[in-house]
Amino acid sequence: MFQILFFSLFLNLSPFFFELPTHEESEELFLKKIEEQMQNSSIQKNIDSLFLMEKEKLSLDDSSFLEMKEHLYQRVLMGCTQKLFSNDQTKRLVKVNKGSNRCIVTTIDGSKKRNPELISQMLKNLEAIGYDGYVYFRIGGFPNPTGKEMQYAAVPYSFKIFLMLEAKNLGFPHVLWVDARLMPLRSLDPIFLALKSNRAFLVKDKIMSRVNFTTFSLSHLEKITGINPLVHYRIATPVFGLDFSYPPVEKFLQDYYACCESGFPFLSVFPEEHVLSAIFAKYCNSYPLKAGFGNQFKHLWHYDDSNSLIQHLDFALKRHFFFFGLGNNSQYLIKSLEMEKKIQKQP
After folding, report:
1. What pLDDT digit, counting tens, does each position of 238-278 carry?
2. Quick count: other Cβ atoms within 10 Å of Cβ 327?
3. What is the pTM of this model?
4. What are the structural domains of the chain?
5. Cα separations (Å) of 196 from 148, 183, 193?
6. Cα–Cα distances in Å, from 301 out to 76, 185, 263?
């Protein structure tokens, strides 16, 4: 009886909840305290308990349970194990070429998993392709556009929308998220035109698959959005954009924050993508996935496999991909590529 009561109480509280420390005048000290609070919290024990409950729910044997856990576990813990503090820590708004009311946002956490020089290379490439707009970026830290987002720091990959909202608060209606290791190779005007005309830039992927979800994420997503995610397409988010001047975005954001508050919708292998996809599916009348939209952006990104960097870059340039994705190794070779010199401005 006690165990049933415990889980009943537990399931009404986000598994990613932790006690926020008292705000410090020093941001460095505050971020370090948040990292400590997350590491010393019960988050990992909560996740472990939920996975054991998942094993029982699905009647998994030990081998199948380990396979499921290996598939999902590290992604689910990405929030509470992230590094917020960095010696390179900064947040900046940079005007590129003539500027405009459009803004690209990106971020790198405080760990050494991503090369901070990716940001400067992205800026060089954007200048070379003739991008007129702004770039708003963070290295380390955590976006906190309304003052309550730090409480969601442990929610895996929740930061993308928050960073976009910080750009919106700076006065930009058209905001495009771009993963930090995606280097622009050609004009992004078609992407921003699509964002403006469709009120969003959404990359349609495959129908969402049951193996990528926990039962908790499925049930809570359906509870919040009223739809079954498994009959809808996944939205891939290495690149995606929102028009914040579009009134329906407010309802979208309300549901997103409800998912962050619950925490459970993010218990999947693609945490933020599954949440965003379910919400976009709910508001499909406001955010329709246009027929033929994918053909125009068939060559959206091409990733290096870290084995033949120059060949992959040349391939991406010849095929006129919008972005070239750097791998875990090649991200540290960006200076030697002199990528910005190989780019030709296109109308």
Report:
1. 999 999 999 999 999 999 999 999 999 999 999 999 999 99
2. 16
3. 0.94
4. 2-76 (no CATH), 90-291 (3.90.550), 294-341 (no CATH)
5. 29, 22, 5
6. 25, 9, 30
